[in-house]
User: Fold this.
Amino acid sequence: MTLAAPVQETLYVELADRSYPIHVGDLGVQQPERLSQLLEPLIPGQQVAVITNDTIAPLYLSQLLQALGQRQVDVYQLPDGEAYKTLDSFAAVTTFLLEKRHNRSTCLIALGGGVVGDLCGFVAATFQRGVAFIQIPTTLLAQVDSSVGGKTAVNHPVGKNMIGAFYQPKAVLADTTVLATLPSREYAAGLAEVIKYGVIDDVEFFDFLEANVSALARRSSATLQHVILRSCASKAKVVSEDERESGRRAILNFGHTFGHAIEKLAGYGQWLHGEAVAIGMVMAAELSVLHCGFPPADAQRLRTLLQGLGLPVILGQQRIGVDAMIEAMGMDKKVSDGRLKFVLARQLGDVIISDDVSLNGLRKLLTEQMS
Ligand code: NAD
Ligand code: GLY
Assistant:
């Protein structure tokens, strides 16, 4: 199917006075005059701080600086990597802002993937008790997931994302053109989260993804624009219903309880987050077959789609013990009242949150999946 798309489209995260737009498409991140038109109404004052990293800055920073015009603009450039999503970086960025005399009407801009976005958002949440921030996500994962919904955080040595805040951006600018430079593993990892939305919310979107594997593989801009919009629409809907994850928002974690355990046990960095989520979604689908009648043929469709888009569906050579997996899952922060909660699919596009999975059932499933 060939898609023709307008240059850019906009949807909104509806959160009363904290509602905000998500602009998707060719937003002009590589054309400063056009980008400037989008940014001008979003920036409250005369000060801006751009937070980015050493990989993204040489690619896209100069265009952004041109778009920001004559105001005071300061840039904090982090080294690349999850290893820098820390309290030390948080403190360093805060000190930088204070030294540059940023005040309460400053505006922070996150130019980067989820690491930069999560850190920048957390600084924005706390600097002078909260300042405006804009997300310009540059990875597919950040465009369809981390930049939307207001989860901001840094890591603690004891666990990922253990220090953070819910704090919504003023806008998200998801420019599809920047995805051209994304390494292929990172691109595929973002597609895992895209496929997740098909499973948890939107069977027609799942069908669309199946029908557009080759367009996705060649990063067709029209297809990507559509895919990012549909993904963000699903996420925006869930976040609007349950901003602080007191209930339904947990469906966004489909496959993640398994995925987080895999990431941790394999050693962080071995699997990208999206890769571990891909394997985790296959495990969650098989658990759904056992527990709530998810059709085995649909579990197979999920496997085929993930593989078609270059994602792993099994651990392969890697040996992770079943007991270690169960323990790591028990340590996961989604444990409530001593029972593990799982997001399970009844059918494609329809999931439930269940705490009714027995330890024996889980052990049996993991033994099959990991042997
Ligand atoms: P990342 O930010 O580390 O980016 C991945 C790599 O791609 C990095 O090396 C980065 O420098 C590089 N890169 C980014 N954009 C590029 C571009 N356009 N061209 C070339 N290279 C580019 O990883 P990520 O997958 O974007 O984000 C992962 C982080 O997001 C994790 O810290 C995770 O905890 C967090 N996360 C947060 C949420 C949330 O709701 N806040 C949701 C999911 C994940
Ligand atoms: N990435 C899961 C969430 O935003 O809730």
